[in-house]
Structure formats: C-alpha cells, structure tokens
Write a sequence for this structure.
C-alpha cells in the first residue's frame, strides 16, 4: 500500500478496512483538524474532543465514502457539522455562545489578530479562516459552505480588506 | 479606477494561486506594470502575514491515544515481522543441538559432573569466544549494555529462586547457580557460557520377584531422595505385572536413587543420557533480558507519548508482543531449569514371567491369543516409551514452531486490521 498517495486513495483504503491508511490520514490531518476547532472554540479540551470525534466519524462513515468529493472537503464538512452541533448545544445550555478562544498567555500579536477576526461577520470570518489557516482552495471552501466559488472569492476579499483596516488601527 | 481591467479580487485569487494558468499569466503581466494592483497585492500579503501570528498549540498526545483506543484495538501488523525469522533460526539451532538419535549407552563421560567430582566445570567446556556472540535481539540494544547487565542478573536470579526446590541445593547445584548469578552480574554484556547445565535422564528396566510391595518401595525411594513421581502406572500385560513410572529426582540424588532401585531386582536394561542445555539457557536468559530492556524502553516511550498515532499503535503492539515473548521464553527457561534440577528416571518394573504350561487345545488357543495381546501391548508400550523419551524435545519444538506457524496463519487470514463500525 502506498501511504504517500493522495488523501482520496488513502480514504478508499480506509474504506476497505486498512488501518495504516487511517493512521496516515490521521497523521496528515490531526494538527489541521485540531487547529480548526482550536481557533473556533474557547475550551481547548472540547476542541480536542471534537477533533477526536471528527476522526471517529470519518472512520465510522468510511463505508459510505465515495470519491465524489475531495477528501479535505469531506473531512472539514464533518468537522463543521460537529462544530455547529456543539455551538447549538452551547447556545441552548448557556443562552449565548461563549466561544471566546482566549488564553491570557497569548502574545499581543495573537490577541490582536484574534480580536480583529472576531469583529468580522460570521460568513466572512469562516471563509477567511478556512483560507488562511485550513488553506483550503476557493473551490473546497465553496463545496464546504455550499456557495458558488465567486461568492467565496468576494467574501474572502471583503474579509481581508476588513482585516486590513482592523489590524492597521492598532 | 473604473476602467481597470483586472478586478482586485482577481489579484487576490492570483496571489492565492487560485487562477488557471492562462489567467494567472495575464494577471502576472498586469501586476508588473500596475502600481495600484501591486498595492492591493501588498496589503493582502500583509494581512496574511499578520494572521500567521495566530498559531495554536499542538494537539495533546491524548488525541492519538483516544483515537487509537476508540478506533478499535489494532492487530499487530507492523512490528515483529522479523520475529518469526528469529524463531525459525532458534528452531533450527534447537534441532541441531538436540540429539535426535540418543546413544543407548550411558553418556556419563560426555557431560555431567558426577557427584563429588572436583573437576571444575570450566575445564570441561570450550572457552567462550572473545567476539561478542550475536543474539538475534542483542544487537538492538547495544548502547544499553549497562542496563541489560543489571537486568540479566535480575532475570536469572529471579528464575533460579523461583524454581521449585524439593531439596536444599547440593554443592553441585549451588555451584551452578552461583556461577550463573555471578556470570550474570559480572555480566559481561555478552552472556558467556561457563557453567554446565546438564539435563540428565535415565532408563531402568527391572524384573522383580516380589511385585506386591514394589510400588510402596519405589515411592519410598523417591521420597527419600526428595524426588517425585511425575506419573506412575500399574498394568497387567501378558501375565505379568508392570509398573511404569516417570520419576523426577533432584539431579545430585540421581545416582543414589538408581542404586537403590537396582537393589529391587534384576536389571534388564539401563541407560543414561545427559544433555547440556547451558548454551540454550544462557541464550534464552540473554534474550529475556533484552526483551525486558525493550519492554522498559517501550514503557518509557509510552510514558513520554508523542502525539503520533502510528507511534502509539506501534508501541502498544510491540509492548504486548514483547511481553508475550518474555512469557514464552520464561516458560521455556523454567522447563529447562526444571529438567536440569530434576533428573528424569524412566522406570519399568515387571514381575517374573509366569511359567508357560499349555496342556490342552483350549490352553494353546488362549496362549496364542495372549501372545497376540502381548505383541500388541509391547507395541503400545514401545510407542509410549518413545513418546516419553521424546516428549520434552517435542514440546520444545512445538513451542518454538507454534508462534511462527500462528503468525503465518494470521498473515494468511489477512483480515482487515480493524473493524469498521456499521
Ligand atoms: Zn491594476
């Protein structure tokens, strides 16, 4: 088995029950997926829980995986669903979201960036984060958010322009 | 600039590498000349650069553990692909070392030390090679020779003290054990064979006149010499009473036990055999020590978990494999030591054959029938004797071959490494 192959071919191996393929995918995406949750949630422990859930859901749904979508879109779609379920739960529990990904140990620059990101509207923020940190292509973001590529591009552009203003006014 | 041909969003898409090659070439050309677009590109780059400051910590190693734990217990698949090879090599060695065709005559001169002998064991044996002996797993832990030295002493000490002792060790035994322990501590990173480890067995066939009391007497002799009967059976075959027994006698007591047994009657057949297990024993002890070091190293590795799932899975797999290995080798080593500590006596005692007195046709017929049974009985006895004689060898060989065969079997099964949930 080629463990250096594409994500998609590895995922097809996982579908066949290959453990090494799953491990290879885990090792490629453990950090990115963890980062995905970590930048969107306040509680580091929950972020890790959800990263775990993502991989288990990936494994669980492996039988149903088809090569129709790019693997990354598929994986982040799982993560996104888990995140929105988590947010719904949190909103119900506390009446409001307290998604404050704050750690006082963060250096100033980080705090500054985070504050700026928080001020974006939800749609722009999500596109920006997916591009800057998850480094998804416009097409992948479009597939994930189920919007046209042009929409992705214009949201991203507006998000970056807004960030430019927010970061400059330091 | 309303007449601008290139939208800022396209400049951004170009910077993000999201344009098709043809389109990208056009934008690149435009960028070279357009200061306005250059400015857009620069500020986009600046935003991205500033955003890169927001890094997040690594996921904790727990993540890999939890995923590995929940994804189902993986079957060992990556590690120890080489250990069947090691097992096969060992099997070949064992087969080569074990005497397949045992000489019928006593082989006292070839190996074991008679009780009371003052010959030093060293003089009997070839000097250890100066070059380190390579055990299949010794090479792995070269830098940990120090640790292994300690381990080896511990292992051997543990084994020795754990061996059931029916009698206080005699001088010969004490010497052997002490030498082993010393050997282990002095330790030489390489286990050096110096002390003999002879597993002795004897076969004794007797004919007695008074069979009625023979069982009691045999048991008393065994007790006196602090041995035990591994099995003992009374049979009646071809008009003769037979007692067959496998006796285990503390090695130093073997000669006196045999002398006592001989007094019971007429000796029909007697044979002694000694097998030096010392090299195998040292080899096994070293391999156990190595495995212990490997075990410790793995435990340490698991304590300082890295976040890599494959590391975790592999370490877990290897750890259970190493432990399995240690248990197997310890079983081998204690059976070996048991054979050395307790010599085996295959005893067969028969009463004197009845005087044949066929006087009628009926008697003739029944005699013929009895002869037939005798032949059958002797045949069965032969098989039983053969089994008794070769059973230890067979057990060792089965032990050695069991794991490679199982490994092959599993390999052939080629089941998926983990079960996908529905
Ligand atoms: Zn321009």
């Amino acid at each position: 088995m080629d463990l250096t192959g594409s994500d998609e071919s590895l995922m097809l191996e996982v579908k066949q029950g290959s453990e090494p393929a799953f491990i290879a995918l885990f090792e490629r995406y453990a950090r990115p997926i963890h980062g995905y949750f970590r930048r969107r949630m306040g509680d580091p422990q929950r972020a890790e829980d959800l990263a775990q859930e993502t991989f288990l859901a990936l494994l669980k749904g492996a039988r149903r995986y088809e090569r129709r979508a790019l693997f990354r879109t598929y994986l982040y779609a799982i993560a996104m669903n888990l995140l929105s379920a988590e947010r719904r739960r949190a909103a119900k529990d506390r009446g409001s979201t307290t998604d404050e990904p704050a750690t006082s140990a963060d250096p100033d620059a980080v705090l500054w960036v985070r504050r700026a990101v928080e001020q974006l509207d939800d749609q722009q923020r999500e596109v920006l984060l997916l591009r800057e940190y998850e480094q998804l292509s416009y097409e992948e973001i479009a597939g994930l958010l189920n919007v046209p590529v042009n929409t992705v591009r214009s949201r991203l552009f507006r998000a970056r322009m807004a960030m430019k203003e927010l970061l400059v006014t330091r | 600039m309303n007449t601008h041909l290139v939208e800022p969003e396209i400049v951004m898409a170009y910077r993000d590498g999201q344009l098709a090659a043809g389109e990208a070439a056009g934008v690149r050309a435009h960028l070279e000349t357009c200061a306005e677009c250059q400015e857009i590109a620069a500020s986009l780059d600046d935003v991205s650069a500033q955003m890169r400051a927001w890094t997040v910590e690594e996921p904790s190693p727990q993540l890999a553990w939890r995923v590995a734990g929940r994804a189902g217990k993986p079957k060992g698949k990556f590690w120890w692909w080489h250990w069947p090879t090691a097992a096969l090599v060992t099997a070949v060695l064992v087969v080569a070392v074990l005497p397949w065709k045992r000489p019928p005559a006593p082989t006292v001169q070839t190996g074991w030390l008679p009780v009371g002998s003052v010959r030093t064991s060293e003089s009997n044996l070839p000097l250890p090679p100066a070059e380190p002996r390579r055990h299949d797993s010794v090479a792995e832990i070269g830098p940990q020779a120090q640790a292994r030295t300690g381990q080896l002493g511990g292992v051997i000490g543990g084994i020795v003290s754990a061996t059931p002792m029916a009698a206080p060790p005699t001088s010969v035994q004490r010497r052997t054990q002490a030498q082993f322990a010393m050997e282990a501590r002095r330790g030489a990173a390489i286990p050096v064979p110096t002390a003999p480890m002879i597993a002795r067995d004897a076969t004794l066939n007797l004919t007695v006149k008074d069979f009625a009391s023979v069982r009691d007497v045999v048991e008393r002799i065994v007790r006196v010499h602090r041995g035990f009967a591994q099995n003992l059976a009374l049979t009646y075959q071809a008009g003769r009473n037979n007692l067959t027994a496998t006796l285990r006698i503390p090695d130093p007591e073997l000669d006196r036990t045999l002398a006592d047994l001989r007094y019971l009657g007429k000796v029909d057949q007697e044979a002694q055999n000694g097998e030096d297990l010392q090299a195998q024993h040292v080899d096994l002890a070293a391999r156990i020590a190595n495995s212990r070091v490997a075990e410790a190293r793995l435990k340490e590795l698991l304590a300082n978990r890295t976040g890599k799932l494959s590391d975790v899975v592999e370490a877990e797999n290897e750890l259970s494999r190493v432990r399995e290995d240690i248990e197997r080798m310890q079983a081998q080593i204690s059976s070996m030591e048991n054979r050395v500590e307790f010599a085996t006596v295959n005893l067969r005692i028969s009463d004197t054959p009845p005087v044949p007195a066929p006087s009628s046709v009926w008697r003739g017929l029944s005699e013929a029938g009895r002869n037939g049974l005798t032949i059958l009985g002797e045949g069965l006895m032969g098989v039983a004797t053969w089994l008794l004689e070769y059973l230890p060898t067979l057990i060792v060989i089965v032990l050695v071959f069991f794991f490679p065969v199982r490994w092959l079997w599993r390999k052939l099964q080629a089941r998926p490494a983990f079960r996908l949930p529905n």
Summary: Residues 8-51 of chain B form one domain. The CA atoms of residues 319 and 378 of chain B lie 50 Å apart. The first helix of chain B runs from residue 8 to 15. Residues B 4, 6, 30, 34, 36-37 surround zinc ion (CB under 6 Å).
